[in-house]
UniProtKB/TrEMBL annotation:
This is Acyl-CoA thioesterase. GO terms for molecular function: hydrolase activity. It comes from the Bacteria. Signal peptide: none annotated.
Amino acid sequence: MYISETKITVRYAETDQMGVVYHANYLVWLEVGRTQLVEELGFRYASMEEQGVLSPVVDAHLSYQKPAKYGEQVIVKTWVEAYDGIRVTYGYEVVNSQGECCVKANTQHVCVKKESFRPIILKKHFPEWDQAYRRAME
């Protein structure tokens, strides 16, 4: 299985009054990790969108294990957890500099036509992405 690693330094604006990362900011980091994974697989979401296809999140699960704090560097590990030709589930772990897991998560996405939000079959419309996702899970 291919795992992408994205380094992020926790910014002050991402923390709450307790000095730890505000829970919703992890979703932003997951998007950063997911975008990097897709780029490492050789693609760009922007090129898909230019062709009238979007990839919205249809489900998200986050399990908070340990808080990340201001100034700390974390790594967002991202991989393709499941893929069936229509839906793709990305898996994530956010790990701090001590190697401790801060968050375990997954998000599920469906590629849809921009004008109708009707799902598309990735293999038919973007066969290279389909093959890349299947290879990434090996």
